[in-house]
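Structure ticket #2291
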Amino acid sequence: MIYELTDTSKVMHLFEGWQETLIYSCLQKVMGKIYVTDLESPISAMAYVGCFAFYAGEPDKELVEKKPDGFVIMTPQNKAWEVCIEECFPMAKKVVRYAIKKDTQFDKELLRSMIKELPVGYEMKEIDEKIYDMCLPDPVTRDFVSAFGSKEKYLEMGRGMVILKSGRIVAGASSYTRYKEGIEIEVDTVEEERRIGLATIVCAALILRCLDEGLYPSWDAQNMNSVHLAEKLGYEFDHEYTAYEVSGEDRTH
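Resolution: structure written out below.
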């Protein structure tokens, strides 16, 4: 049986040393959930938030097989968990992701200079009640707000900036998730507006807003383009890690 763990202190040692803010969100009970197969003395755990699942402790096939519905990005703590995931979901797509250091000291003047590069005809806005509603219909912008589950929760805990052109959101940077000390950044630009610097501009604006509030704007990269954008903003690459993309249709048999 899979259980949701309410006393997350019971599994903190299993995730110790894993510098991943989405895990922090779950352990801190800010958002997301922790699942185990033993409520009293868990030796295995899954932290789940958004579409990400992180597996720690002793490999447990039951935790993997009974994944949340829909598309999930499974991240194993070690090689043993990799084997477990591959055995449970042989059709899963094995991918490389890129961790970014969590102790960046930002150059605020550099970031402010980036914001000044906003082209004529575009405008920057904070994600408020109206912009939140505009984010939902488009797959490009939905993840800016979707993990929070409700408008009220996003407006309370989320932070985000968008760039509009002719009243349409064409780029944005927002909190994919929130933990007590900061946010995890989600950034995207519509296809026809890419490669003109909008992602750099809107990320610089969000980072500055976070810094003004004493929040850390954490970054994790799906690909090398994301790594290069992060480095342009002042972040430093840390290491590669393995993840598995599992669709809602994948089966264990």
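Closing remark: The mean pLDDT is 96.
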